[in-house]
Amino acid sequence: MTSLMDEITGHGAHENPRFPHAPEGWTVAAAVEAARNEGLEPGEEHWETVRALHEYYARHEAAGTANLRELHDALDERFHGRGGIKHLYQLFPGGPVAQGCRIAGLEAPAGAVDKGFGSVA
Fold first, then answer.
1. How far apart are CA 34 and CA 22, in angstroms?
2. DSSP code at position 111
3. Tell me, what's the pLDDT at 62?
4. Which of 62, 65, 103, 119 would you label with 23, given CA atoms 20 to 30 Å apart?
5. Any residues with CB less than 8 A from the CB of 17 and at least 6 apart, and which?
6. How many CB atoms within 10 Å of residue 101?
C-alpha cells in the first residue's frame, strides 16, 4: 500500500489507482495544496469525498454540466451512514460541493457559490 507522500511525489492522477476518475492534470499534490490553502488537512474521509466527486463527474460527463441538487443528493446518499451531507459539512466547512470540487480539481455546479456570499453548497 502506498503512502500519501508516495502519491504526492509519484505518478499523475490517471496512473493513481486510488483516483481512477480524476480529471486530466489533477494530482494529489495539487489537492493537498488546495486543501491546505483552505485551512484543511486532508484525511481519508476527505479523499473518499474527492473520489465520490470524481466518480459523479465521470458518470455525468456527457451531460456537460453537473447538477447541483443531484450532486448534493448523491453525496447525501453516499455518506448517509455517517450523517450524510451534514457530516460532509464538518469535513468541508466551505461547503462539501463548492470546497470539495475545488480540492478535487472540478468546476463546481452553477449555484454552488454565490459571488456575493460564498459557498452555499
1. 15
2. T
3. 66
4. 119
5. none
6. 25
Tell me the helices (H) and strands (E) count for the chain, helix number first. 6, 2
Please name which of 26, 54, 51, 40 lies closest in space to residue 89, comparing C-alpha atoms.
40
Angstrom CA distances, 41 to 26, 37, 38, 47, 90, stand at 18, 9, 9, 11, 13
Q: Which three cell numbers stand for residue 49?
A: 469525498
**Contact indicator for 26, 19 with CB cutoff of 8 Å:** yes
Q: Which of 99, 86, 2 is nearest to 53 (CA)?
A: 99
Range of the domain at 113: 4-119
Half-sphere exposure of 89 (CA within 13 A, CB side): 9
pLDDT digits (tens, 9 = 90+) for 41-58: 999 999 999 999 999 999
d(CA 108, CA 99): 8
pLDDT tens sequence across 99-121: 999 999 999 888 887 655 445 55
What total number of domains does the chain contain?
A: 1
